[in-house]
Amino acid sequence: MDASLAHREQAAQLTIGPGRWQRTLSQVVLTLLFLVAGIVFLIPFYWMILSSIRSPERIFADAGSLFPSEVTFVSYENLFSELAFEQWYLNSIIIAFGFAILAVTLCTLAAYPLARFNFPFRNVIFITILASQMLPFHMLLIPLFMMMVNFKMIDTYIGVILPLAAHPFGLFYMRQYMLSLSSDILDAARVDGASEYQLFLQVVLPLVRPAIGTLFILFSLEGWNDLLWPLIVMRTEEKYTLAVGIAGLVGLYRQRWDLIMAGAFLATFPIIILFLFMQKQFIAGISSLGSGVEK
Questions:
Q1: Neighbours of 160 (CB within 10 A)
Q2: How far apart are alpha carbons 104 and 281 in whole angstroms?
Q3: Rounded-to-5 percentages of helix, strand, coil across the chain
Q4: Are residues 12 and 108 in the same domain?
Q5: Are 159 and 140 in contact (CB under 8 A)?
Q6: Which of 173, 174, 201, 199 is closest to 185 using CA atoms?
């Protein structure tokens, strides 16, 4: 009997073994592919760091080298001495996070009635808002610019932030997330005597916190990288954002690659820090997005 049992175990191992090896091999291959892809994506970032700590005349002379022949921080010294880089940095922080806060607030407030209230033309309003996303932003540049001129918002922070704060994608994302919330929780809060304001502030907002974190990161990144609209609105160099200021270093006949690489490297820090602090909410907001089917 023992021999029969041992024979069965050996047969089971032979049957299961190849499947396990195949799964292990596929995991190893996928890991290697992801590792190679990660290295490929990091190459431009690594080259940017190397170029920023090389002397200007050695940036392209040593372009094929993986390590700098000598380390110098003259590019960073010139960046702060020749340009208003600190002010550009401050302008970018104010605009990026001001835009993110205002856009997330508006999208959350607008998404709640569109997701949880039944009123006439609700779907028509929602579809109309989504349809506005199909309009290229370049079509709106002149009308928006004329509005900013009439409102005397040219060369101001609010002139950059306000026209972009009404974000159709943010409204769509937040509405879909709110549609996935269980109606039983909201009904129970109403039975307990909660008003709609209390329901929104004390029940809905804590439940959609991952979506708020996700939108905040996306909007911060959008405001931080935006070039076209700040370039049009901001007229003085002291009001430039990092994107506008660094882009201005690319001239028709000369490019200051040393300053460009140093400025681009320093410009990546706030978004990286923001993502590190909010990555759990970002991942939760992406992975738990509802299907849009009301429960």
A1: 28
A2: 14
A3: 75, 0, 25
A4: no
A5: no
A6: 199
267 occurs within a structural domain? yes
Range of the domain at 213: 83-287
What's 61's DSSP letter? Answer: T
Residues 88 and 219 both lie in one domain: yes
Q: Both tokens of residue 183?
A: 């109606």
pLDDT in tens, 57-115: 877 777 777 787 788 898 899 899 988 999 999 999 999 999 999 999 999 999 999 99
Residues 35 and 136 reside in one and the same domain: no
pLDDT tens column, 13-69: 545 455 677 778 888 888 999 999 999 998 888 888 888 888 888 777 777 777 877
Residues 270 and 141 in one domain: yes
Domain contains 233: yes
Q: Are residues 41 and 124 in the same domain?
A: no
- Measured distance CA(242)–CA(88) in Å, rounded: 5
Do both 170 and 27 map to the same domain? no
The string of DSSP codes covering 154-218 is: TTSHHHHHGGG-S-HHHHHHHHHHHHTS-HHHHHHHHHTT--HHHIIIIIIHHHTHHHHHHHHHH
Q: How many domains, the chain? A: 2
**Structure tokens belonging to residue 238:** 């002291």
**119 and 173 co-located in one domain:** yes
Bridge partners of 250, per DSSP, are 255
Q: What is the DSSP letter of 71?
A: -
The DSSP-derived string for 86-142 is HHHHHHHHHHHHHHHHHHHHHHHHHHHHHHH---TTHHHHHHHHHHHTTS-GGGGHH
